[in-house]
Amino acid sequence: xxxxDENVREPGxxxxxxxxxGACGRAIIADLVNNPGCKxxxxxxxxxxxxxxxxxxxxxxxxxxxxLVVHKLDWAKTNEAKDFVPPLPEKPSVGFxxxxxxxxxxxxxxxxxxxxxxxxxxxxxxxxxxxxxxxAKTGSWFGYIDTLGRRExxxxxxxxxxxGIYRPGMMDRHEKQRFPKExxxxxxxxxxxxxxxxxxxxxxxxxxxMKEGTFSFxxxxxxxxxxxxx
Length: 230
Hints:
The protein has 230 residues and is α/β, with parallel strands linked by helices. It contains eight helices and nine strands.
């Protein structure tokens, strides 16, 4: 936990979240809205969100109107322009990337996340927090791990003042569980499984407390950080 200060370093930030309706993304949205250290949250989506309370089950419904902005994005045009299309109504300072798919694809796990990070950097985001995976490494013989490794490298190359990379193992995605592989979590000791809410908690606390630089957070570290700041 040496990469996080006990005291909040950067309160009152405006956040931008890619992958807002995924298992990690919706927990991040709720935690940001609920946290007084975040002033406003832009949730980037492909389509409208008719009912934020059902989409983000742990969100404080009383804060939705004042803090949450759903921004419908044309991802293909954003990738082409290297900027958000349509443009954001306000400049954020902090970005969260929880983008990806199952099964993975080059577009959803590399091209679009890198387009998101590139556009975020262009729009003034200087702190980025990325959900990756345990073992992510460029050149791995396992395609998914190689893709996420290349994605990490691409984010590093953008020169964020603060870059946090979160590498969970088996995740408890709740009702977003991926069948069949993630149902093996029920056969595993709890220490090998991390709740998406613990990943989100670690990322939001990182936005508030992380020192300057690029830091990675392991499965075990995230569980400890989430427990500390609950």
